[in-house]
Amino acid sequence: MDRNSVIGFLLMGLLLVGYIFYNNKQAQNAAHEKAIQDSIANVNKPKTVPVDTVASLAGTQLDSAHQAQISGEYGVFAAAAVGTEQTSVLENDVVKITFSNKGGQPASVQLKKFKTHEGQPLMLTNNSFNRLSVEVPASPTKSLPSADLFFAASQPQQSGDQQSISYRLNAAGGAYLEFTYSLKPGSYVVDYNIHAVGFNNILPGNQKTIALQWNSQEDKQEQDMQNERLNNQVHWMTNKEKHDYFTLQRTPHEKLDNELKWISVKQQFFNTTFIAKKTDFASADINTKVPESANIVGQTYTTLQIPYDRSADFNFPIEIYYGPNHYKTLKSFDLGMEKIIPLGSGIFAFVKYVNKWLIIPVFNFLSGFIHNYGLIIILLTIFIRLLIAPFTYQSYVSQAKMKVLKPEIEELKKKYGDDQQTFGVEQMKLFKSAGVNPLGGCLPMLLQLPILVAMYSFFPSSIELRQESFLWATDLSTYDSIAHLPFNIPFYGDHVSLFTLLMTVTSFMLAFYNRGMADQSNPAMKYMPYIMPIMFLGIFNRTAAALTFYYFLSNLVSIILQFVIQKFVINEAKIHAQIQENKKKPVNKSKWQGKLEEMQKRQQEMQQRNKK
Asked: Please, what are the domains in the chain?
């Protein structure tokens, strides 16, 4: 490996390390943020109406004192204060949703085709923290969360291939609030319609919006809680087609004043998204909390403002997506929802196009007829290496040329000693006369960098790889582990990833194989190829097994290709003869080269003057 190749490798490594640390950076002020989150959560948490006897009065005959107490607290919704909780189910082949008449809301949501890391049913919603509630006016001065009131439920209906169920909350004077939910076969989408009748008579005259409170708790589903929390985010799309997001660990509160087409709470592999079907959400206020719990990834408290036109008969249709972060599925909505999948961000945002136009199409094509994802990764690796094979070949030719010129370069070093300026000028003349491009060895590395970064984004977020096994790796979407350590090693972890070790070993093999090409007089150039694998060992130990497997395969292919090309394809004697022929040809200097040499000559003259 020549000096320029080492520089290219070093730049690639530094850029990759920077990208990894950018994506994995933890919030440094966690304790301070936790205090803020707790206070915000307490303020924003839905309030339970303080009537101690209400729960115990369900199904009993109320006396006049209790009736007066409930009427004072619940106003026009006093009749809905007491009831018996009952559930109903809408179900298709991919999702099962259980609804409760208390609040007329989803009580649990199960994704039927997926399991947790422990093999349990995967529930996106399954506890009392999750609430879907409309703020209803109990009186001119008081409002209540609908989630605390009992709705009258209809029986589930079947219309064609669509199931539906309705919940009605009746108010005094004939006004009512009605929620209707519909589910189609094979769909992760629930049609949710908010129907308010007569609210124009009981809402304040200046009120232009209705508050929809959506609380969501994300429970642990995967092997690595740290990665789950890094991927626990809130995403949204404004009516101006602007997508943005934040991570719960880093942002305790976000106020969105723009109109929103959709808003999503994203987990590592799944998401719940509210999509405004006809009229956009007016705004959103989001508070978050990351509890100190081994089983809770994060919690969000989102208040969506629904624009209200004050009509006597008001409808606001919403689509709720409960499903996987599957690129093709999310893209089918044609709303930019696929942007919640991290295919490239920050300074490496451009690699999302590598994923969209190269990695994902090839991956999907292969998975169409191959069901072993380890084999798919092998074929994908071979395809990528074939794609850059011409550049790889030119790189090895460039290295061979540099190797042939190495004795002459050593002679120049002896001749000019410490005069690096003159040495540089003469070295460039030698390269030019021999027809050698000193940067020829860098191009394949620069081409591999965006592909490697694209893989770094794609593999850990690919729902297709989730819980897919290969060899000793039981889940290609997370790290493989052949041993769990009884202690934690800083910058490494508490487990041993075999694919990461293989990746590191093959990286050392490449460095050792190319040791003769490095500049032995420069310690940085001499030892850097051995330092980078050690750095990567700690960084990649927690990453997806699919990624480290790919990196290991790529290194292995490089070793085999380099051996075959240099042993059986490249003829150094022929290259040496060609270089000698090139030296005899007149050298045509470009304008840029002429200016560069002129600048170098001036610098030499100035240095000589300074010495005198």
From this structure: 3-24+351-584 (no CATH), 45-341 (2.70.98.90)
